[in-house]
Amino acid sequence: MLRGFSVELRRLLILLSVCALVGLWFDHVVWALLAGSGLYVAWMVWQIRRLNKWLLHMNDEPPPESSGIWGDLFDNIYHLQRRQMQEKNSLQAVINRVQETSSALRDGVIVLDWRGCLDWWNPSAQRLLGFHSSDQGKSVINFIRHPRFVNYFEEGNYGEPLEIPSPRFTAKQLQFQITRFGRNERLIVVRDVTQLHKLEQMRQDFVANVSHELRTPLTVISGYLETLSDSGADLSPPWKRALNQMQQQSKRMSLLINDLITLSRLETTESGYNHKPVKLEPLLLSIKSEAQALSGEKNQEITLECESKELELLGSEKELHSAFSNLVTNAVKYTPADGKIAMRLWQAHGQVFFSVRDNGPGFDSKHIPHLTQRFYRVEQSRNSGTGGTGLGLAIVKHVLLRHDGELQISSEMGVGSIFTCVFTQTPSDK
Description:
- It is a single chain.
- The protein has helices at residues 2-26, 29-56, 68-104, 123-129, 147-155, 194-230, 237-268, 280-295, 317-334, 380-383, 392-402; strands at residues 108-112, 118-121, 162-165, 173-181, 185-192, 276-279, 301-306, 312-315, 340-348, 351-358, 405-412, 416-423.
- The chain is an alpha+beta fold and 430 residues long.
- The strands form three sheets. It has a five-stranded antiparallel sheet, with helices on both faces.
- α1 (2-26) packs antiparallel against α3 (68-104), α6 (194-230) packs antiparallel against α7 and α7 (237-268) runs parallel beside α11 (392-402).
- The radius of gyration is 40 Å and the shape is elongated.
């Protein structure tokens, strides 16, 4: 550009010098300089016209031939245009590659604009949801009208995926996971989980059926063992020891079956069914009495602090009793003799809290994400002697989910543990 500017300046000086010499020859220097300036301006206007014409047809024509600053200007614009075309082709190749990859996915992929309207989707999404090319720019809620999806989409809390029946095929179950990106655009991944849903239903049915079928023979076995134990029969020490062990394992299996039946009922019955206001203080007083009886000779100090005697929750009294009782029972089992267990109920910021604190051995924080899994054990050796089934916290988790609540856990080795139930809905909220 500097070289072209120098050439252009030299050209202008030569033109003005020639005009000045001609003016001196004819004794009209001023008019000669004006005429030369006019010619230069006309030439500049012509170059501007050429530039404008080429810019209008730059995709079809090479840049005009020129010299000086205009030659540099044409060449620079041409090189910028070529670089832009290369970058555009490169970006288009990336876009085509992404679209090809997305088209090969078995999961549906939907891109929404900032308004929540359809912008792009892959063939799998078209197959699962029945989109057509004319649907571009329409709201996704027009095609997925299930109330749970509408609430999920509008609330904007996309931490967990949503499973609902397919709006197109009633026999299919679809999972929707939404992710935000860009300027409030959203990406929806749609997955067909029909097979997983059927397997989960088979698992639930199997557990429920087996648990009920095992209950009858176990009751018969326990009855005969109790009869033998109460009959006062003259048994040798080895047989007495065997009889005691059979009774212990029979009771443990009975507890396990009861917990499996409870879990099965929580998983298969509709959430919110037959809920009514439940006064919490009488419920917790009953659980405290049960805990004191279970504590027995361990001489543990079990306390209950209720902020309000009138505090209520909308829910199932039986389910809430099961959840709270499991937390307190665990505290009794794992807290040593003469230990302290504190139950507390309070309300704050429109939420109801119930916590169970103990000064037992505690556990490492790495176990917290897994504690509500079925049959999870922190330490196999320690738990084998407690008589637990490994299902207590799983039951707590399911009960809280059915009551719009969550379980918060904190623990410190050698200090103790705190289990807190947080409920977001009370009768007044309804």
